[in-house]
Amino acid sequence: MVIKENISNLKTLIQKNKFLKVIIMILPLIYPTIFVLNINGILSNELFNPIPLVWIGFYSSIILIYFLGLNLINILLVLINVCIILILMFISMMGGVGAPLSLTIKMILPFIPLHWL
């Protein structure tokens, strides 16, 4: 019960503090920025490869919806991440049916190495 109370206290703190609200709203824009910069060749680095970083879009969207609730801006930010994740899943279909499954597992459990999947 202590964890539940701490999370609800954090939720009320985020909803009252405008600075934290802006930070939570910027979080879902990190993954689309990485994706666009990588596709355009600006961030052609293995560190910023969008496939292993798909968890950023997934968890930032969950954090946004949980802490700030549903409104039009939040839904649009989540839809941007969902569209990019679906594009990556469509691209990964070239690797067979197991590739989107491994991408989904990597999205939910980011600490699992890719060669285990």
Word description of this protein:
The chain is mainly alpha-helical. It has a domain at 31-43 and 50-106. The protein has helices at residues 2-16, 18-26, 30-39, 54-68, 72-92, 98-108. Helix 5 (72-92) crosses helix 6 (98-108). Keywords: Membrane, Transmembrane, Transmembrane helix. The chain crosses the membrane at residues 20-39, 51-68, 75-97.
**Dominant shape:** globular
Q: Report, as a whole number of angstroms, the end-to-end distance.
A: 36 Å
**Chain-averaged pLDDT:** 89
Structural class: mainly alpha
Supply Rg.
16 Å
User: What level of helicity do the residues show?
Assistant: 55-70%
Secondary-structure element series: HHHHHH
The main sheet comes to: none
Quick overview:
This protein is an all-alpha fold. It is built from 6 helices and no strands.
Descriptors:
0% strand; globular; membrane; transmembrane
Give a topology summary.
Elements: H1 2-16, H2 18-26, H3 30-39, H4 54-68, H5 72-92, H6 98-108
Helix pairs in contact: 1-2, 4-5, 4-6, 5-6
